[in-house]
Write a structure and sequence with these properties.
With about 140 residues, the chain is an all-alpha fold. It has eight helices and no strands. Helix 3 packs parallel to helix 7.
Amino acid sequence: MSKRVYEVIEEAQKKRTKAGKIEVFQKNDSWALRDVLRGTFDTSIEWNIPPGEPPYQPSEAHNHPTDLIREHSKFKYFIRGFRVSESLNVMKRERLFLGMLEGIHPKDAELIINMTNKTAPKYITRNIVEEAFPDLLKD
């Protein structure tokens, strides 16, 4: 079983060297990880979600119905300028976002909230992401 995205981020944060962090990202590469890193560091991505802490009820860490590996494909509904995002009314988009947050592991939910607020994980920099995945960031 592959690691959850928050587990990969936490493992990378514990590495003392830039090369160690890059190695963790490359060894645990997944579309969900790439999407979270791109959503956090790519300034061309604007989130169509109100900033700050959303009013959601986190799931229990040991009992969540889905995971970020499955749910990351919903990010397209929350990016400003995407046709599918713009076609949803505000209430439906925000309900979809809250449902995603409530269905995944609470630490992954925190990671997603930080991503939409453009808050980088501690000890993870844009430079590290660019070296781990050279073609990921567009700007």
